[in-house]
Amino acid sequence: MAGLVTTFGAGAMTNSIGEIRDVDFLFVIGSNTSEAHPIIAMEMKRAVHRGATLVVADPRSIWMSTIADTHLSLHPGTDVALLNALAHVIIEEGLTNEAFISANTEHFEAVRDAVLEYTPERGEEITGVPAEKIRKVARAYATTKKAGIYYTLGITEHSHGTDNVYALSNLVLMTGHLGYASTGLNPLRGQNNVQGANDAGASPVFYPGYERVDDAQAQAKHEEAWGVNLSSKPGYNLNEMMKKAGEEVKAFFIMGEDVLLSEPNVSRLEAGLNDVEFVVMQDIFLNETARFADVIFPAACFAEKEGVFTNSERRVQLVRKGVEPPGEAKPDWEILVALANACGANWDYQSASEIYDEMAKHASKFSGISHKRIAERSLGLQWPCETKDSEGTVFLHEHGVLRGKGQFQAVQYRPSLELPDEQFPLIMSTGRTLYHYNAATQTRRDSGTNAKQPEAFVEMHRFDARTRGICDGEMVSVWTRRGKIECRVIVSKQVKKGCIWMPLHFAEARANLLTNDVGDAVTGTAEYKVCAAQIARLEPETPRPERFPGSFCRDSEPV
Amino acid sequence: MSETLRLNGKDVAIVPGESVLELSRRVDVEIPTLCHDPRLKPVGACRTCLVEIDGMHRLVPSCATKAAAGMAIDTNSERVVRHQKALFALYLSDNVDAAETDDTSAPSELHAFASKVGAPTTWPKMQHKRFQRAGDRNPYIEYRADRCILCARCTRYCEEVESVSAITLAARGSETTIATSDNRSLLDTTCELCGGCVDVCPTGAMAEKKPLSLSLLPARELEKVRTTCNYCGVGCQMDLNIDRMANDGRGVVAKITSPDAGVLPNDGNLCVKGRFAYQFIDHADRLTKPLVRGEDGELAESSWEDALRIASEGLKRVAARHGADSLSFVSSSRCTGEENYLVQKLSRAVFGTNNVHQCAAT
């Protein structure tokens, strides 16, 4: 988000999901698309069936890499080195789009100088991806007009996450793959309303519509609109809030998140929460965080309330009420109005639609959007949509880069902050699976998804398993400097030697007891994707299940 | 000037590349079809969409015939109608009776079209020989061989759209059926349980398994409410199928179906979570009353009034003691835009701190 705002002027998918089927060159990096975004994966599969070239850059073998033309299996956390090497080839071989660069961008020279030393050979040294593959991919990307880049948290959940986004932006800007259909730079959002939450100003530095809180003009505008004095001091980001819990932060209000399952290094967070004086929560289920809550309000789920979700492609869509909430549960917005009024405010919202109108009034990007207009169109509205007769925007930057000039950002490769050593020789990454979702309070309560994937697991390479005397399906303990958990092992062809991977969904084996809470310098997003770990077999052996789903290319030959 | 053809005696402009079926649908001339889906390559397998074109000796499948300038097409000539009646009667003789399709599966397109073309229902029934995968322990998808017409929409969807090829046509002749590799449970195949096969099936042969405890209205009487999926960031459009009167008038989401192909952004597709993982809505663990932690350290049910008072006093007490910036507001990318707006307004305008964030800001 922050990265794309800096380079392009808008933090969102530049293009739309429906355009993916017409892309000729797909570069998928740090995205396990078929598991985390199955519907987008279907569009990618359609493009591949049509004859498009698919390149997947991911340390793991994933479903998408099985149908890819090229799989760049880089070492975890070396994305910048790979991307800079791609840029190096594009520049060295004269494949840059000079007309686009001079008309639409600034600071290209800085990037040209910075990537000079990232020859494909140096790239190979750092990333483990053969230099020839890097050359081939760079040439194909630069010379295909309809070339799109797709990424998710494999890019951003690093201590250098924003650098990764900058490095991707550089590739887009130097090739001019921006501002027309079936191209661009496309972050695929993980939650239903990531885009909408950011758009609505649930951010320590932005008011609704991305106006900064330390911008005096924006502050004055909102002071007038809301009739109160506002603080110009940027707030804590989530990572800081969690680290300051019990110290600077003495009270929490938490809506719809299980911080004790989702945030990194949770044992430290739990210690901090013990010193927090007051916690208010609203959610649809009790969760891990509820152990620390003083008051919990029962909330309505998506099928029981009205409102909007904004998807990855900036499409604002209606959520409609189908059934009544159970018992005395209420929609979150009604609870918030009641709570604000109990705290002394005088809010008088009668409907979600009314709240949306107030937000849109002061945020020009959405000022042409209302519940009524969305309902009339049946396919939502994609922002920017600034007037009541605007049809919205299918792809961004059509008439030049939104921020005026696309900004090149030179970046250098920095290793991840916790690398393997003698004591912790394995690199651990975490991620999602198809059958569960985040804290899995919903999917683990479903008989089907839970039958397909009933328990936590860790994937490891057969070599690493053999040297530790571990067999497929056995129980192991996994530990890092921060914590220890127990789960079942899958000896898998999906992970590289020296790497392990586990899903984050399972409350009884919380991967986030292990992860590193060091944050990205700009966004504070934690390094979920790289930390150092160790594994050992657990005695006595628990009986192994006949079949264990979750891994499509399990390495089940005898070890 | 675009090129034209004649359709049932009227001139119609051609959109380059479209089939006769697509052209007819565009101008609201209905042609029955069972095997066609806009997301799949046309195969012309079911033969129900045959039309008569001047100069062609045989009737041709409209789904697999490109519209061309100068064609004269008849979609309901005597010959076409005679063919349709006989063909649908044959399909019906190898399928269940219309009354049996009234259960909770999807409404049957086969029976709807058959009644529309006036196909005789009195032809003797055949005993079908299609093998049924009994005892598949997968929790969501059921194959009912007695309703299958082998149009292969499901297997083609599985291959062309979801690209996992978990199900396939198997065996030969009258024993042809839909099967998995070694007749394994779908759980043990490459199937990702997206349920696309259920969605595209025109007869309800591929159906959603139902928990036995639910006795709800037939599918066609459920009320559909279009909404946006609450899982990942694709924002799939989906229809909640609601039985309003169930659950003491609270209503029950009886199932979730996808909209027609072509509805953005998901083109009528859904994944396993979106289509099937909705049991949580009615789960017994749902919070139904406010909870407040008492003197004994345990959470206990409370009235809204008390809970709101305690919550507001608690937050205000901390703000008074340590300053507004000692509060932190964690909003949620799972909640609506309006709710996120209110959380940041609560934080900024009511308490005076910018400490507001949610888990997804990269």
Question: What are the defining features of this structure?
Answer:
heterodimer, A: 559 residues, alpha/beta, Dimethylsulfoxide Reductase, domain 2, 3 domains, 23 strands, globular, B: 362 residues, alpha+beta, Ubiquitin-like (UB roll), Alpha-Beta Plaits, N-terminal domain of TfIIb, 17% strand
Tell me about this structure.
The complex is a heterodimer of chains A (559) and B (362). With 559 residues, chain A is of the alpha/beta class. Chain A folds into three domains: 2-188, Dimethylsulfoxide Reductase, domain 2, CATH 3.40.228; 194-382, Rossmann fold (3-Layer(aba) Sandwich), CATH 3.40.50; 426-537, Barwin-like endoglucanases. In chain A, 31% of the residues lie in helices and 17% in strands. In chain A, the strands form seven sheets. A six-stranded mixed β-barrel of chain A has the order 16-20-17-19-18-23. In chain A, strands 3-2-1-5-6 form a five-stranded parallel sheet. In chain A, a hairpin with a 3-residue loop joins strand 7 and strand 8 (211-212). Mean pLDDT of chain A is 91; it is low at 545-554. Chain B is α+β, with helices and mostly antiparallel strands. Chain B has five domains: 4-76, Ubiquitin-like (UB roll) (Roll); 92-208, Alpha-Beta Plaits, CATH 3.30.70.20; 219-282, Single Sheet (N-terminal domain of TfIIb), CATH 2.20.25; 287-317, no CATH class; 323-362, no CATH class. Chain B is built from eight helices and 16 strands. Chain B has helices at 20-26, 78-93, 109-117, 153-160, 196-200, 272-276, 304-322, 337-350, and strands spanning 4-7, 10-13, 50-53, 60-61, 72-74, 141-143, 167-170, 177-180, 206-208, 223-228, 237-243, 252-257, 291-293, 299-301, 327-330, 356-357. In chain B, helix 2 crosses helix 3. The longest helix of chain B has 19 residues, at 304-322. The model of chain B has no long low-confidence stretch (mean pLDDT 91). Classes of the chains: A alpha/beta (559), B alpha+beta (362). At the A-B interface, helix 3, helix 11, helix 12, strand 9 and strand 10 of A face strand 10, strand 11, helix 6, strand 13 and helix 7 of B.
